[in-house]
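User: Predict the structure for this protein chain, please.
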Amino acid sequence: MKNDTFYQDEPTVEADAFDRMPDTAATGLVLLTERVEQLARLCERLLRENQLLREQQAALQVERNLLHEKNEQSRTRIDAMIVRLKGLGPS
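Assistant: Here is the predicted structure, written as C-alpha coordinates:
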Protein backbone atom coordinates (compact mmCIF):
# COMPACT_ATOMS: atom_id res chain seq x y z
CA MET A 1 0.00 0.00 0.00
CA LYS A 2 1.41 3.39 -1.00
CA ASN A 3 1.25 6.40 1.27
CA ASP A 4 0.85 8.77 -1.65
CA THR A 5 -2.34 7.10 -2.90
CA PHE A 6 -4.37 9.63 -0.94
CA TYR A 7 -2.84 12.48 -2.90
CA GLN A 8 -3.30 10.79 -6.26
CA ASP A 9 -6.91 9.73 -5.71
CA GLU A 10 -8.29 12.94 -4.20
CA PRO A 11 -7.52 16.20 -5.99
CA THR A 12 -7.19 19.18 -3.72
CA VAL A 13 -9.78 21.92 -3.60
CA GLU A 14 -7.24 24.46 -4.83
CA ALA A 15 -6.46 22.40 -7.94
CA ASP A 16 -10.15 21.98 -8.75
CA ALA A 17 -10.77 25.68 -8.31
CA PHE A 18 -7.79 26.48 -10.53
CA ASP A 19 -9.00 24.11 -13.26
CA ARG A 20 -12.44 25.75 -13.31
CA MET A 21 -11.09 29.28 -13.67
CA PRO A 22 -11.39 31.06 -16.98
CA ASP A 23 -8.11 31.24 -18.88
CA THR A 24 -7.64 34.92 -18.15
CA ALA A 25 -8.15 34.42 -14.42
CA ALA A 26 -5.83 31.40 -14.39
CA THR A 27 -3.21 33.33 -16.35
CA GLY A 28 -3.60 36.29 -14.03
CA LEU A 29 -3.17 34.01 -11.03
CA VAL A 30 -0.03 32.47 -12.52
CA LEU A 31 1.39 35.92 -13.26
CA LEU A 32 0.51 37.13 -9.78
CA THR A 33 2.15 34.04 -8.25
CA GLU A 34 5.31 34.67 -10.28
CA ARG A 35 5.38 38.33 -9.23
CA VAL A 36 4.91 37.43 -5.57
CA GLU A 37 7.74 34.88 -5.83
CA GLN A 38 9.95 37.50 -7.49
CA LEU A 39 9.12 39.95 -4.73
CA ALA A 40 9.91 37.35 -2.07
CA ARG A 41 13.30 36.64 -3.70
CA LEU A 42 14.02 40.36 -3.90
CA CYS A 43 13.15 40.80 -0.23
CA GLU A 44 15.46 37.93 0.71
CA ARG A 45 18.28 39.41 -1.37
CA LEU A 46 17.76 42.85 0.16
CA LEU A 47 17.72 41.40 3.67
CA ARG A 48 21.04 39.61 3.02
CA GLU A 49 22.52 42.75 1.48
CA ASN A 50 21.30 44.88 4.38
CA GLN A 51 22.85 42.46 6.89
CA LEU A 52 26.15 42.56 4.99
CA LEU A 53 26.10 46.36 4.94
CA ARG A 54 25.39 46.47 8.68
CA GLU A 55 28.33 44.14 9.33
CA GLN A 56 30.58 46.27 7.13
CA GLN A 57 29.42 49.41 8.91
CA ALA A 58 30.17 47.87 12.30
CA ALA A 59 33.65 46.81 11.15
CA LEU A 60 34.33 50.29 9.77
CA GLN A 61 33.14 51.87 13.02
CA VAL A 62 35.58 49.69 14.98
CA GLU A 63 38.39 50.63 12.59
CA ARG A 64 37.45 54.33 12.87
CA ASN A 65 37.54 54.15 16.66
CA LEU A 66 40.97 52.47 16.60
CA LEU A 67 42.32 55.12 14.22
CA HIS A 68 40.87 57.89 16.38
CA GLU A 69 42.56 56.38 19.44
CA LYS A 70 45.91 56.12 17.60
CA ASN A 71 45.53 59.72 16.45
CA GLU A 72 44.95 60.86 20.04
CA GLN A 73 47.99 58.90 21.24
CA SER A 74 50.12 60.49 18.51
CA ARG A 75 48.83 63.95 19.41
CA THR A 76 49.72 63.36 23.07
CA ARG A 77 53.26 62.20 22.17
CA ILE A 78 53.80 65.15 19.84
CA ASP A 79 52.62 67.58 22.53
CA ALA A 80 55.05 65.96 25.00
CA MET A 81 57.91 66.29 22.48
CA ILE A 82 57.11 69.95 21.92
CA VAL A 83 57.22 70.57 25.67
CA ARG A 84 60.60 68.79 25.93
CA LEU A 85 62.00 70.71 22.94
CA LYS A 86 60.92 74.00 24.44
CA GLY A 87 62.69 72.97 27.64
CA LEU A 88 65.95 72.34 25.73
CA GLY A 89 66.00 75.72 24.01
CA PRO A 90 67.85 78.80 25.26
CA SER A 91 66.17 80.39 28.21
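Residues 4-8 have pLDDT under 50 and may be disordered.
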